Amino acid sequence: MTTLGLIFAVLTERIRWATAFKLVLFMPMAVSLLAAGVIFRLVYEQDPDKGVANAILTTIHDTFSSSQGYPGARPRENDLAPAVVDDGAVVAKQPAEPGKPVLIPLVGLPPASLEGAAAAKAATPGPGEIGGTVWLDVVHGGGGTVNQVDAEEKGLAGITVEAVSDGVVKATTETAADGTFTFTGLPPGAYQIRLPKSNFEEPFNGLAWLGPTLITPAIIGAYVWVWAGFAMVLIAAGLSAIPRDALEAARIDGATEWQVFRRITVPLLAPVLLVVFVTMIINVLKVFDLVFIIAPGSVQPQANVIALEMWRVSFGGGGNQGLGSALAVFLLVLVIPFMIFNIRRFRRDER
Amino acid sequence: MTTAAAAPTGIRRSLAGRIVDRIGGGLVQVFMVLVAIFWLVPTLGLLVVSLRAEEDNNASGWWTVFTKPAQLTFENYANLLASGFTSSFWNTVLIAVPSTILVIVIAAMAAYAFAWIEFPGRDMLFLIVVALLVAPIQIALIPIAKLYGSLGIFGSILGVVLFHVAFGLPFAIFLLRNFFVGIPRELLEAARMDGSPEWRIFATVVFPLAKPAIASLGIFQFLWVWNDLLVALVFADTENQPMTKALQSQMRQFGTNVDILAPGAFLSLLIPLILFFAFQRYFVQGMLAGSVK
């Protein structure tokens, strides 16, 4: 937190709209932790259609791995089926021959999910080309010939198809709207057609921010959001008190900007950084509202902090005021070193 | 920051150096814009969610509003105000305003005494005030709850106000005393020479000078009380509960209550935000002065 505040404080000196930036970062300080909790409950909502954190994550994920996503699609499990499942991927049994279409019929998808998809078409690869069709080999309402492309059957668009030779992927393509694919310009050789696993994975739905494993980082994120502005403003005030000529002198002596920062700015700022650090520690020790609001009841045990536990055992249904008092005293003991620190600092300033 | 600031020296500046400067500066700009967006988006999200009907919020993310602004409605706010939320709003006001005024009045007098009147044990007492600055609020909850129980004010607004005043005072006294100490001694000596009583000096000399400090303190204390949840949770009955507690009680069914929680939370942070933007100078000053709280 102190580091982040330092980074922001140093960087704000570089931009023209520093005042506006400080205002924006400082604003959460005025907001109640309850409101901040509600805000972050919305941010961390699991469903990527509602929670902005997961919406951004899924967007990034989908940009880098464009999985059309046909979870559940699989070949028929009998000896006649021309393709089998191999370690999550679907592989054609016969090696591909140029000019002869590779048929990969799949089942396991509800036909309704493909409503509006183009009808499957039998591929007609030219001589020297490897091509084929990936389609849903099911006719809605029954009928059709198994393992043959029938007129009413739908092609599976956007499926990644790999041509594999000796275990190495030599070429990759995607199926068209009618489920057909073609490899052109492949050097002659024995190729196997494979539909990699990614085609059949569940679509990425983001992270369970409010689940038991991520709840602590999630709360830390919200906490940083609230307090970074405070750290930044304090450190910025400290920065402006550093004499300019010390920095200039070092620069003229040929110090790099990093050296100036490391050897002059940070040592001169050290007292301010210490105050910010101590203040943040005290605040974090007392944190209650944010944990109480953000963590859903079921994961509160994983997110528990002293202040929350103290409230829970003595007021929130527990009624055990003895244990509550003990926890409060424990909290006080944790804070005492910082009390002494403050008194010392105050006495020094008074002299 | 490594590159952009090399410029002012004017030494060792090759063309390549300048290009790096330009790009570095640009990167800093982009980074800062991203950070600012990151800081703004959550609050914006709350506002938009509070302005969308329940069905819309269940069906799609709030950001779709930018393509379909027709979704916006004040329905949630109307429902909220009709549901008795206003009474908890008034409770918040009834708690926050007296707490702030009491703290300012008491702290101003105490700070004046600490700064300008000699009395035995003054320094020791003030060190206790400094120590209390960081005392966690939790240590007082149970004893005060017992005390309030025997006094018969447990659950009342009075009890909540008194607790806030008690816990606001150390910081308030500390802040004002440090400001009062900075007032030139001659001003006070002159007034004392004229034979003015202490309360007159306080009212005519110190108080007008201390207005900025008092403004900082007032805003701080007001926001602190306005935003408090823990004290209200322990000491306020349901009929006396402030907004924070009323909203908290809706948290359990977060998923189904967004249409109440979002506008409620936004209303509760509206007043702090207005105060913050109107008086941000005092706010920052208070923060700097009392960075130990």
TrEMBL record, chain B:
Primary residence: membrane
ABC transmembrane type-1 domain span: 89-279
UniProt xrefs under InterPro entries: MetI-like, MetI-like_sf
Record localization: Cell membrane
Topology in membrane: Multi-pass membrane protein
One annotated Gene Ontology cellular component of this protein: plasma membrane
Gene Ontology BP, a term: transmembrane transport
TM stretches of this protein: 23-41, 89-117, 124-145, 151-180, 201-226, 260-279
Keyword Ligase attributed: no
Keywords: Cell membrane, Membrane, Transmembrane, Transmembrane helix, Transport
RNA-binding found in the keyword field: no
Protein family per UniProt: Belongs to the binding-protein-dependent transport system permease family.
Name of the protein in its database record: Binding-protein-dependent transport systems inner membrane component
